[in-house]
Design a protein that fits this description.
Chain lengths: ~475, ~200
């Protein structure tokens, strides 16, 4: 959608790492959230059973989603909700705009919805003369700064309170140099309260949609989704079709897992179940595909659609923590974003599955047991096969293949490597060699293992003894 | 309409060929712990305040003592008419913007996360627990269940237009992970545990 040139993850991460103190702070802040998650999870005796159950429910959903969608639509309509279907981002944006246009709405308040980030709804509506205000505090902050969120649960996690203070001073006229989070939050509360009271339309995301009842659930800590929805004439809720779950009772499983995995809270402050519109008011649901049905058909990658957007994989990821959400140039960053993004656009997002150490921590914390690191590895293979890798990487791999395939070449390469590192280290130990970023190479051995073995193997010794 | 047919056709074509079974939920929620103590501890940990009372009179005297500056107090409970108004449920919800304290009674509470289940019939207006500066919720002591599984067993096929679990006051940690109570909703939550 955006015409901006994409900066590859490794390049963006390099820029992010220029301020090493700030990177350390970012790393520690997210690790702190990961530790809170651990503490919360360990308090639940049945935690692993819950994960397994959630995973099985989601597997069932993916295997029967066609029927669940039909059931959900019928029940939602019975409840008086209007249901729309969007094949892609463009259609999603047009549907939202048409609902607003019908009600002559020029200003809308929105709570967090990563789907609308994925579809670039705000930009589309702005081009069509509709002003959108994001009401989640983190999203409000990044919106004022004209930045995208850097984390799906903690949108402004890349910013320090000094940055927020500066932004609020500029846009809301708060005291310059007042960094107190309490003061800054209160200022936003006052400002946004007026927004909630004056908007005729409100848009929210959807955490779970229940086929059995036709209702949907929105989870927030701030109460912003509810403030918007209960004061507006029109409530639009946008969801990817994978948000469906079969029955209301399944919420018991997911609501136990979601907030604990996300922030270590036992549950979000509000878990709001919207079943019917208020008298004389409207609720619209927009069900979006935008590549999801394609992903459903990729057997190796389909279970990425089990994701409940808790963000645990980001908080635990050593690469995410030290490269920042913006490096991923995708609405959903981190490990899960890196397996979702190539489905949307392989050539634009070919770098993302490589932005991982494949350590597997993401898979270990995932509340619905998505095999994230395996999928990252599998995406690399798909991307290489389809020709979406960097030429420098391809060259290096080809050279490596030649060297490893030929013992004589391997010997010569090893010898010259040791000679160079010992006698002219500057040739390799320079800023052009990525392996030297934040690293020291080990001391160069006098001889290779092969050379040592030639002298010390039993055969060699016997031969020496004979002489 | 054509998009719907198209999306469903693609899904049908791409979803796995056989339907996998749904898991049994009965094996969950058997954790043993002191329900009331857990409820109170968790509530305090997330910024709420539990108060044990034995009657509505106790609630009234607590409100009279602790909410001396709150001018507009609303409720849906006739038992509290002495301290709160009851005639606002059909008003424009925007007119509740100056409410200082909302007092309602929850269907039940959940010990593991201190959440309280409320639906539109007991909220008077859907926005009432969100728009007020402070919130107080009454729950019967015997209506606190251990986990969310018992909660959804209790909800069953309950009919409502809107229902929500409320756990603690509205909060945010979006600025440097510093916890601030009172983001957009209530700045404080008192839970009266009655019985």
């Amino acid at each position: 959608m955006s015409s901006k040139k994409i900066i590859e993850h490794s390049e963006a991460a390099t820029r992010f790492n220029k301020d090493s103190k700030r990177v350390d702070w970012h790393d520690e802040t997210l690790w702190f959230v990961r530790e809170k998650r651990d503490k919360a999870a360990h308090q639940i005796q049945d935690w692993e059973l819950l994960r397994e159950t959630a995973s099985k429910i989601k597997n069932n959903v993916l295997s029967n989603i066609h029927d669940y969608l039909i059931e959900f639509e019928a029940n939602a309509q019975k409840n008086g909700i209007k249901v729309h279907w969007a094949a892609d981002a463009k259609e999603h944006n047009e549907i939202v705009h048409s609902i607003l246009a019908k009600h002559d709405v020029k200003q809308m308040v929105k709570s967090k919805s990563m789907l609308t980030e994925e579809c670039h709804l705000n930009e589309y509506l702005a081009e069509n003369g509709v002003e959108v205000i994001d009401s989640d505090l983190g999203e409000y902050i990044v919106q004022l700064r004209k930045e995208p969120p850097s984390h799906i649960v903690l949108p402004a996690i890349h910013l320090k309170k000094e940055d927020v203070s500066e932004t609020f001073h500029e846009h809301l006229g708060t005291e310059k140099g007042n960094f107190d989070p309490q003061y800054l939050t209160e200022s936003a509360r006052q400002q946004l309260r007026d927004t909630f009271l004056t908007r005729k339309a409100s848009l929210t995301g959807v955490n779970f949609a229940i086929a059995e009842t036709g209702e949907f659930v929105v989870c927030t800590n701030e109460g912003n989704a509810d403030m918007g929805a209960h004061l507006a004439d029109v409530h639009i809720a946008c969801m990817g079709f994978e948000k469906l779950i079969p029955k209301r009772e399944h919420l018991g499983v997911f609501l136990r897992l979601l907030a604990r995995s996300a922030t270590g809270q036992p549950i979000t402050t509000f878990s709001s179940h919207f079943k019917k519109p208020r008298d004389g008011k409207e609720i619209h649901i927009v069900i979006v595909d935008n590549g999801r049905s394609t992903q459903l058909g990729r057997e190796d990658f389909r279970n990425s659609l089990k994701c409940i957007r808790c963000g645990a994989c980001m908080n635990t990821c050593p690469v995410y923590r030290r490269s920042g959400g913006h490096s991923y140039h995708n609405a959903v960053a981190g490990p899960i974003g890196s397996i979702l993004a190539p489905n949307l656009d392989m050539s634009k997002n070919a770098d993302l599955p490589f932005a991982s150490t494949l350590c597997g921590s993401c898979t270990n914390v995932c509340p619905v047991k998505i095999d994230i690191h395996d999928q990252l590895y599998k995406w690399r293979q798909v991307l290489v096969k389809e020709g979406h890798t960097l030429s420098s990487k391809t060259m290096a791999m080809k050279t490596m293949a030649t060297v490893l395939a030929n013992p004589t070449v391997f010997n010569i390469a090893g010898k010259s490597g040791r000679f160079v590192m010992k006698n002219v280290p500057a040739l390799v130990n320079n800023k052009f060699n990525k392996w030297y970023d934040h690293r020291e190479m080990p001391a160069v051995p006098e001889e290779s293992f092969r050379e040592w073995y030639k002298k010390n193997s039993r055969e060699a010794k016997e031969k020496n003894n004979e002489q | 309409m054509s998009s719907k047919a198209d999306i469903l056709r693609k899904i049908k074509q791409n979803q796995p060929e056989s339907v996998t079974a749904l898991p049994d939920l009965k094996v969950l929620g058997s954790e043993q712990f002191n329900v009331l103590e857990t409820y109170k501890t968790v509530l305090k940990n997330i910024g709420g305040y539990p108060v044990e009372v034995s009657s509505y009179d106790d609630v009234i005297s607590y409100i009279k003592t602790h909410y001396t500056n709150e001018k507009r107090i609303i409720t849906t409970l006739p038992e509290l008419s002495e301290i709160a108004t009851l005639d606002w449920t059909n008003d424009d919800p925007h007119s509740l913007e100056n409410v200082d304290l909302t007092i309602v009674k929850a269907h039940f509470g959940v010990a593991e996360n201190s959440a309280l289940w409320v639906t539109d019939d007991i909220l008077g207006q859907r926005v009432s627990p969100f728009i007020a500066q402070y919130l107080a919720i009454i729950v019967n002591k015997e209506n606190i269940f251990p986990t969310m599984h018992q909660a959804y067993d209790k909800i069953g096929n309950q009919e409502y237009g809107f229902g929500t679990f409320i756990a603690g006051p509205s909060k945010t940690a979006d600025i440097e992970q510093s916890l601030v109570l009172g983001a957009h909703g209530a700045r404080g939550l008192v839970v009266f545990i009655l019985g």
